[in-house]
Design brief:
Layout: E1 8-13, E2 18-24, E3 27-32, E4 37-42, E5 48-53, E6 58-62, E7 68-74, E8 79-81, E9 86-91, H1 94-99, E10 104-109, E11 114-120, E12 125-129
Parallel strand pairs: 1-3, 2-4, 3-5, 4-6, 5-11, 6-12, 7-11, 8-12
Antiparallel strand pairs: 7-10, 9-10
Length: about 130
């Protein structure tokens, strides 16, 4: 999906990835079983954003103008945010500790008005600024 402006967007794939670019919506749910989930868009205050991939990465690119509360987790990948999260909490299993990777990351950017939940079972979760 490219250049979509709507109140709610939900895209799910069983075989293949999901990519949503230029998205302007306050309720977004993207998921894939076998590949990557990519979101590039604008957050809205009080918006809800949920991203899930079982066997791929979750890549979230935002402009950083709207604050958000973030919860990210993975079983065997890593979680990171290029935007500084206040009150951040991380957790690591023993393998992750050896590699300096986070398995879980939560915290708040700015006013925390939007909510982002991102999970991957065997991939990584990355939040970057546009």
């Amino acid at each position: 999906a490219t250049g979509v402006k709507a109140r709610r967007i939900s895209l799910q794939a069983v075989s293949g990835g999901v990519t949503a670019r230029g998205i302007d919506a306050s309720d977004v749910k993207l998921g894939s079983i076998t590949d990557d989930v990519v979101f590039e868009g604008t957050l809205t205050p009080r918006g809800r954003y949920e991203f899930m991939s079982h066997s791929g990465d979750v890549q979230i690119t935002i402009d950083g103008r709207v604050g958000f509360a973030f919860e990210g987790s993975t079983f065997s990948g890593s979680v990171r945010s290029d935007l500084t999260l206040e009150n951040s909490r991380t957790s690591r299993n023993s393998a992750a500790r050896r590699n300096g990777e986070n398995r879980n990351l939560s915290g708040t950017f700015g006013d925390g008005s939007a909510v982002i939940n991102a999970t991957s079972f065997s991939g990584s979760v990355v939040v970057t600024k546009k």
